[in-house]
Specification:
459 residues, alpha+beta, Neuraminidase, 4-stranded antiparallel sheet, 35% strand, globular
Length: 459
């Protein structure tokens, strides 16, 4: 009899616990839906878990098993043509020089001449620079195929500044390093450098970094932590950190002017700003605009379609401007007082979704624009870069197309180079590796090359 009572008591206790668990689940769901107690705590807990889950591996491609999986990342896209290398070269109109590029298929950078011949290469894997990358925490073993040189800049003596980035993890910036012409490490910076960098005339390095933030914002309390926080970092030529400015804190000090701009990237919770460009403002531009000072940093916030100018000394935002664009990249302050950028999704006509345009940052008036045509599609829904050349042509990086093109101000393509990094697709076609960025240099800008900088066709 006692044994039956004990059995019944245990059953009743288990049944009671299960009922309480069910009622707790129902109440918790209702609290989250109708926003009553303890929804604030629960929301914080859930978003914290989501952010930490993101931080510790939000992607399925932690290890890439085969080429087919690699082609599903955003480092490879279906090739539009089987052609590779230089396909257009108008020697009379193109700016003669050497083109330096980084590509999604490699831990390295390549320098080619106008005919597409490789003049010099820099190659250094992330593992060689950081054999024991403790600063990455759980991402110490990211598959090397997912790591690439996002931005890099060569120096006249052959040194190169490198920003390592990975596809997948959050934060995705892995660090910055300076290498010599032979790939030997000169210094490392372990901040989570991402997207972009620039170098001032005195060698000061401007870079973007990010990290996970749990501290709430004072003037945008509606955006609840945790989330990715972007920083502007200034480094000395030897890699010492001089300034580190939180763009969130700078916006707080700005009195919510930045946060009142639109934010419609609902699928990217936790990444309010998504800074993707940093450019040092030069003396000519600053002389035209009284709100700018030489040495300020121009930064593009992609997810807010907004450009801001930050003074590194004060850490304050001195200017902000809403841009009628679609996920733009690579904004630049020009000596004539205008700005130019890649508008990835802003073109509404035929010939692709992308355009490059120059505009007045005060009035917004467009001064010049380039977009694709039916026969020459220009379409890169992410990434991209541009450079105004000394002859006033514009070198454009069409990242997703694996294509570099130089265009005149009348829109004529006078040089085109297609990424030779290809991969066979399961359907028999080809995929092309993205171009992360490209810059053209005059031969005299890179004296370390000596006579090797001359094309084989030259005397």
């Amino acid at each position: 009899m006692n044994e039956e009572k004990n059995r019944g008591g245990r059953f009743f206790a288990i049944f009671t616990v299960l009922c309480l668990m069910f009622l707790s689940l129902v109440y918790g769901s209702a609290a989250m839906y109708f926003r009553f107690f303890p929804s604030g705590f629960l929301h914080q807990a859930f978003t914290s878990f989501d952010a930490l889950a993101s931080y510790y591996g939000r992607f399925d491609a932690g290890r890439i098993a085969n080429d087919e999986e690699l082609q599903r990342t955003n480092l490879w896209y279906r090739a539009r043509t089987e052609k590779t290398g230089t396909t257009v070269h108008d020697a009379e109109q193109a700016f003669d020089g050497l083109t330096f590029y980084t590509s999604g298929d490699r831990h390295g950078a390549v320098l080619v001449d106008m005919e597409g011949n490789t003049v010099h290469e820099w190659n250094k894997t992330f593992a060689e620079v950081w054999p024991d990358p403790k600063h990455l925490g759980p991402f110490q073993n990211v598959d090397p195929k997912l790591i690439f040189w996002r931005r890099a800049r060569p120096f006249p003596n052959g040194d190169v500044l490198v920003m390592f980035t990975a596809y997948g993890p959050t934060p995705w910036g892995l660090g910055l390093a300076k290498l010599d012409r032979d790939g030997e490490v000169l210094w490392r910076y372990e901040g989570y450098g991402h997207h972009d960098l620039d170098i001032g005339p005195d060698g000061t390095i401007y870079a973007l970094t990010h990290d996970i933030r749990t501290k709430p914002l004072r003037t945008a309390e509606w955006f609840e932590p945790p989330y990715l926080e972007d920083f502007l970092v200034l480094l000395s030529p030897d890699g010492r950190e001089l300034h580190r400015i939180s763009l969130y804190d700078a916006a707080d000090e700005d009195g919510q002017r930045v946060y009142t701009t639109r934010y419609d990237h609902s699928g990217e919770d936790g990444d309010l700003m998504h800074a993707n460009t940093v450019r040092r403002i030069g003396a000519e531009f600053a002389a035209i605009h009284d709100w700018a000072t030489e040495g300020d940093a121009l930064i593009l916030l992609r997810n807010m379609d907004t450009a801001i100018v930050v003074n590194p000394e004060s850490g304050r935002i001195v200017w902000s401007f809403y841009l009628p664009v679609g996920e733009a990249h690579d904004i630049e302050a020009m000596p004539n007082g205008n700005m130019m950028l890649i508008d990835n999704l802003g073109h509404r006509g035929g010939g692709g979704r992308s355009r490059v345009y120059e505009f007045d940052p005060v009035t917004g008036r467009i001064a010049w624009m380039y977009h694709g045509t039916k026969d020459r599609v220009f379409d890169s829904h992410i990434r991209g870069a541009k450079q105004v050349l000394p002859n006033d042509n514009v070198l454009i990086t069409e990242s997703c197309g694996g294509r570099l093109l130089e265009v005149t101000r009348t829109g004529e393509i006078v040089w085109e180079f297609l990424n030779p990094a290809r991969m066979k697709r399961k359907d028999g076609g080809e995929s092309v590796a993205i171009f992360c960025g490209a810059r053209r240099y005059a031969r005299e800008d890179l004296p370390f090359l000596g006579e090797t900088a001359r094309s084989p066709a030259e005397p």
